[in-house]
Amino acid sequence: MSPFLSSFLLPFCLFSFFSFSFSSKPSHKVYIVYLGEHTGSYAAEEIQENHHGLLFSVKNSEEEARRSILYSYKNSINGFVALLSDEEAEILSAREEVISAYPSEAKWAPHTTRSWEFLTDYEGLNQRGFGFLENDWQPSKANHGKDVIVGMLDSGIWPESKSFSDEGFDPVPARWRGICETGQSFKASLCNRKIIGARYYIKSYEAYYGSLNTSYSYRSPRDGDGHGTHTSSTVAGRSVSNVSALGGFAYGTVSGGAPLARLAVYKVCWPIPGPNPNIENTCFEADMLAAIDDAIGDGVDVLSISIGSIGDPPTFSKDGIAVGALHAAKREIVVVCSAGNSGPKPATVSNLVPWIITVGASSIDRAFTAEIKLGNNVIVTGQTVTPYQLEGKDYPLIYAGDAAIAGTAANLTGQCLPNSLSPEKVKGKIVLCFRGTGLRAEKGQEVKRAGGAAIILGNAIANGNEVPVDAHVLPGAGVSASDATKILIYINSSSNPTASLGRARTVNGIKPSPSMAQFSSRGPNVLEPNILKPDITAPGLNILAAWSESSSPTKLGNDKRKVKYNIISGTSMSCPHVSATAVLLKSIYPHWSSSAIRSAMMTTATLNNAQGGPLMNGDGTTGGPFDFGSGHVRPIHAADPGLVYEASYQDYLLFMCASTGVQMDFYYPCPKDPPLPYALNYPSVAVSRLNGTVSIFRTVTNVAQGKSQYRVSVDNPNGISVQISPKSLKFNDVGEKKSFKIVLKDKGTVMRGNGTYVSGSYTWNDGVHLVRSPIVVSFG
């Protein structure tokens, strides 16, 4: 490596990635060799030559070195991805200019309309001029996100969708430096003034799985799955009228949150080979890091990443999304990620670093109701978006557990797993199945295979009353856990159980709403409990958006139906709602820092539902900070937060020193005693294992016009005394900063136990703005 180039490296730690075998050299794996950050202006060829030279030092020939390299990161991130033996990686790690070389170990996957209309109605403050719909008659300071560039890391895009029309758009902003990469069924002409860039990243995927099977996905930015098209249109889709899901459900006008924003597509997720590759996608860290590096170089303003780790999250310094996002944060690019779909189990939230906005999922006020009438005249209300209907008569009703074939595991007999039902027992009947193991739509497919007339899909207890809807391949409906139990009791108590299934319809105005989705991953933060995660929640249950026309609404291999718009659920759907809000804020305040935008959303979030009651969980319990973070996003309020909490790149480096002991930048060595993690100037406060008294300092920046004076109020956590000084902050100018001290004291009045947490909050109020921060404390 050139001494001139290496002298400018800002060292970072390496991340671990999937360990995979190389067919011709079984001992070789994919490694990322991480060298830091580019701080000078170097030609891409020079950077790549330096990477080749470093790799050549452990290879037998220059040709072998060039053949082994998969990626050479050239924009912000300095490093490369290559096929290495463990011995070669160890030799490279020992070199002075190399920070680390790690094999890949962690897999990642996507976390898989009315939602924006609901948000504006929910706030009840449209008069403040922060509209969302493209044809909204009200003036909008955000101008619908015009010319803000949002980068989408996902499964690609279906460019022909009307949601991505560029009609009426101005020329592409001159600051844009990206490209439109061509490939299978994707010509350069498919990019336009709306989709201004498109790339795809597959090298790490193919190093693991071999060549892509193009029967299931496109070797191009084109989306063969639907997930990426859905998230992209939720962020920035145009306003399209006369839209509905299959069967005419959710009919109306659909729009993204920032319909005049520009889209840059980075396809990083691909199908997992297997019996049904349409169902699951995987996203490799090395591919995602290459995409983030290009997105930074291309000039995006916001990155929306509905992807998270599978299983235990990787440590911060070995988390590709986290470290790539740190590079983005240094350039004030807002990075928004999904929290995960592993709830309601505690400590399952992913994307845990403080420079990422981590989003949970909640419901909106829409349902797709279908009446189920049992033979005892009891009526149960289910939900469905299947276009198929039963005749208006009673059908025999059977529990799947009573129709399972011999050999089905006892704990799985009611699950309707593939090839588990006896056609002799099921034919012509409505079958009650339960969620738990397997895919919801696949359970319907199994009932159809066995000759069943319809499916009633019952929630497990953990799913509570929240019913994600599916476009089943036969008539059917989903029901809550309590209603599923009611139906099962009826079946067991009747010698001839029957039921009828009525026609489904779209119903708006469901109360109470919103509520937290049970699938949304919960806190606390398992890697750093002194940072509260998730940060915020947004709509993610039964969201209608654009879809890939090469993918069926269920994504099942035998489902040949095609749709232009589809309804799906997940924190993958809530993430783009917050990404769009960030786009709108970026449009209003182009010079705001990424941390100011995060703070504006968090401190203006609400703890109440649209009816004024507390935000509830899907199981009927009252929600808390580990469910929804600071609360439910309110985009209109976020446009006028009053005060913001800002954190710099250097603050994040100090956080890493304290949290992990890792020096992330050559020019910023870790001090001997770095500030503790909870000292980061974050919009929420989390203190783990409080024992006695702790003092925390925070600084707020005034972003409101005119002079103001704020006074603080405190909602003390149970057993904790919270003292804030000073109790009043006076501001004369925009941009003025004021600091204050928070003293938390354990009063010793709460019973201790493993995992005992208490929560409260403090709020700054000037009579116009309420700037609220949650407080979460566990005891030592």
UniProtKB/TrEMBL annotation:
The keyword Protease applies. This is Subtilisin-like protease. GO terms for biological process: proteolysis. Residues 412-487 form the PA domain. Residues 145-610 form the Peptidase S8/S53 domain. One of its GO terms (molecular function) is serine-type endopeptidase activity. The keyword Signal applies. PANTHER family: PROPROTEIN CONVERTASE SUBTILISIN/KEXIN.
